[in-house]
Amino acid sequence: MLQLIECVPNFSEGRNQGTIQRLVQAIREVPGVQVLDVHTDGDHHRSVITFAGEPPACGEAAFRSAQVAQALIDLNQHQGVHPRMGAVDVIPFVPLEGVTMADGAALARQLGERIGRELNIPVFLYEAAATRPERIDLAQVRKGQFEGLRELIGTDPAHVPDFGPNCIHPTAGAVAIGARKPLIACNVTLGTANVEVAKHIARAVRHSSGGLRYCRALGLEIKSKGVVQVSMNLTDFRHTPLHRALALIEHEAQRYGVPVLGTQIVGLVPQAALWDAAAHYLKLEQFSMDQVLENRLRYLIRGPQ
Amino acid sequence: MLQLIECVPNFSEGRNQGTIQRLVQAIREVPGVQVLDVHTDGDHHRSVITFAGEPPACGEAAFRSAQVAQALIDLNQHQGVHPRMGAVDVIPFVPLEGVTMADGAALARQLGERIGRELNIPVFLYEAAATRPERIDLAQVRKGQFEGLRELIGTDPAHVPDFGPNCIHPTAGAVAIGARKPLIACNVTLGTANVEVAKHIARAVRHSSGGLRYCRALGLEIKSKGVVQVSMNLTDFRHTPLHRALALIEHEAQRYGVPVLGTQIVGLVPQAALWDAAAHYLKLEQFSMDQVLENRLRYLIRGPQ
Prior knowledge:
The structure is a homodimer.
Chain A: E1 4-7, E2 10-11, H1 17-28, E3 34-41, E4 46-53, H2 55-72, E5 88-97, H3 101-119, E6 123-127, H4 138-142, H5 145-152, E7 175-179, E8 184-190, H6 195-205, E9 215-222, E10 227-234, H7 242-255, E11 260-266, H8 271-281, H9 293-302
Parallel strand pairs in A: 5-7, 6-7
Antiparallel strand pairs in A: 1-4, 1-5, 2-4, 2-5, 3-4, 8-10, 8-11, 9-10
Helix pairs in contact in A: 1-2, 2-3, 6-7
């Protein structure tokens, strides 16, 4: 039976193409692993690589990319609008087929143990791999970022890593490793240069400050374009769908007379999320995935799966 | 190389489940043919069966279903809100893979010749199989419906069939057979019992009276539900997308203070049409089909196609 897991490491490098290529190459070299997407953002100074394969191959590829990131990225030189604490900042595993969430968490632990031991980077397990309730939420784990965590790890008992040394790596910082459901990362661009508007909207829409249950959001300034963004993660798009999060953002933006200029998917999006959006806006009644021609054809060509 | 064609015959029976089952069964009995969808509407008194397979098998299945329709459906007893001229009213072939439009038109001609000869039904070729410009458009071919065409076929030189007898079949009427691109059939339900509103909106949105280029539309009364519908075909959804047709319908409906209650896909819809709609409403920038997770996975599992 096919075992398929996805891995979506985020690296604190969104400008140097040579470094990004070395990261992608390190992943590609592992047999059985396929790179599905590379998303790079100069303003965020961050790259998101999506790859998939069987769990052991994905664990190996994630390790090799972390090794390259540790060698080439220096957090002391890093300034971007997205929060970060490490050269390889976060490594989530996402079970796709024939793999349970528990398998994903086990893979996260194995990788964490190895990165701590071989690369000397403190590792915090998060979401389905978390060892304490307060480490489930990535934003909590990353709070303080590289500069703040440098002081906290080694002194604050709440910041003892799950693996690796009890002090920050001087250039590569720290890393969060976990297992989670598929997530939609989406940047919503607003037609204003005032980052306070984006921050207000992010607070309105995100769960942590009273907003939608499966939504994380940050207000960011994109100086290079003279606009601001609400950078959003939807961690369960079935229960907090894209169209609802966007409607709330547009509602709040209206209060400031600010238009939503566009949205951007970071990495990949499950097709069901787009179908849900289409069905909502088109007011489709009694619509099912079986009415999508290609779904029926797949069945025809390959038989029931 | 795989040759795959779709066939979407429309039958003038939307109430008698026994007859509908016999029609479906006649198609299923042909080896190599797969029934993808059966859509039945009691108000339209019409059923749409979607099936696919290799061209010869689909031609055979279409013939057998026409044979059952000729035997079981009597147009003299038929009253529904959808225009119709035959027991099997229209048989379109839609090339899917490894089949050209010319192949589809050739299959339509072969089937037309056989239905004319063996079932004694006059056949009009339409769209890509049409033998005259004025027969390209299905609405033109069907004009007058069963009752009107009974008088015209055999007397009017413009109504000489392409195949079969030069007179209508007394119970099974006439049939249009053709080849075309994938089409989206969609019913938009309006919150009013006044069919004039639906007719006005249909005229505004359809190509024939000045509306969108790849849109056909009719205003229909759904007495059983106390509402009306704009019943719409989009014959090229890349150039006349669903969201634009719906926006125009909502715009016109507003003028009457009438709400759009919902929409309904008849049969199947290509996934790209839903993605286009999602991308439009969600204001997705630089979005490509490659960002859909399942598309990347398919590539991963099966390799480049």
